[in-house]
Amino acid sequence: MNRREFLKISGFATAGVAAAACAGKGSSSTQAAAPQGEGGMEYRDFLGDHVSLLGYGCMRWPMIKDASGIEVIDQQKVNEMVDYAIAHGVNYFDTSPVYLQGLSEKAVGEALKKYPRNSYYLATKLSNFSNADPAASKQMYQRSLQQMNTDYFDYYLLHAIGRGGVAAFNKRYVDNGMMDFLLAEREAGHIRHLGFSFHGAQQDFDELFALHDKYHWDFIQIEMNYIDWRHADGVSNTNAEYLYEQIAAKGIPMVVMEPLLGGRLAQVPANISARFRERDPESSSAKWAFRFVGSHPMILTILSGMTYLDHVQENVETFSNFQVMTQEELDFMEQMAIMYKEYPLVNCTNCKYCMPCPWGIDIPGIFAHYNKAINDGTFAQTREQKDYQKLRKAYLTSYDKAIPSVRQASHCIQCGTCLPACPQSIKIPTELERIDKYIEKLKQNTL
Prior knowledge:
Helices cover 40% and strands 14% of the residues.
């Protein structure tokens, strides 16, 4: 079945697919009610839940320094953003024990504590990447419950499985008895819906997805956006079109991560942005990206890591009175994906899993600065380029302002500590070296 036939059969329903709705085994009868003030928010009905199509990804919240100079989450701003989101119909909140250097879950619990527990859906993960010891894994699970002041999770995920296939999965979850533990927790209602988030090659996915017959996954979280739909790298991620069709065929709803590729699809290269404006001057690049993902009917919710209140406000507007794409618009998005792939961007989603660097290097900041110059059309390429000297000076000046000298790429010693942490499988030391050599050429004016 090709993509066009599949989407035609699916019908691009916008309010959930009754035939695909399936109750999680052992799920609690507790269900979140539609929140007050939901307005025109788009909802999807799966697993007996009424979930906002816009989900709050709690991985990129604003940080401030406390009295001792330590970076902490700005709880006041988080509370304001969560209050606004809930008031406008957002009811799905996704976090992890490792987000924001372990601070996210507590901040989620603090922001949500004044709301009735059955008025929102809570999702977190078993992020036992470095320690699969059963005692440590169970401690992580229990600590998540304590951090968020709850006695059950609505959605619980095995975090970032894929690379290494079944062998790696068995090490983290089967050989240590954690799958038996989690299945028992689902049966008892402490986990309403059990699933996993996936990063890996197609073969890895096929092996893990085959375990559905044994574990009965209630939902699956995938990376999906109009770039990764057909143009994933095939190593860190599989084409989302393939994942979507395989999962939807089993009637399993999907949660989407990285709909904006860590914000990169909100600030696309200038000529792509111009194409979007030609078609609709009122729609942002981010809105086009969100509409693409949300136009697929088996999507339960789309996670957006909203750092500032204006992000929340803009996204709420996008998902209120939601507009499903026509087939012609979907074809247009494929054209934009092809154009986007022509740019030499670093495939960083700013997840910060690589941080803190033991040598203090601001890895995501360096990549974000580099990508922004390309997207803005201010990337100095050759001395024959128009305004080259102006662009050269602007890049060097902005680089020094954005990244303190002690945290710049030149200080990377190629230790490789960051490599296993990157879900995108970026060759981080290699990319830092490439950017550092580029900067040195700009300084020496030898590009």
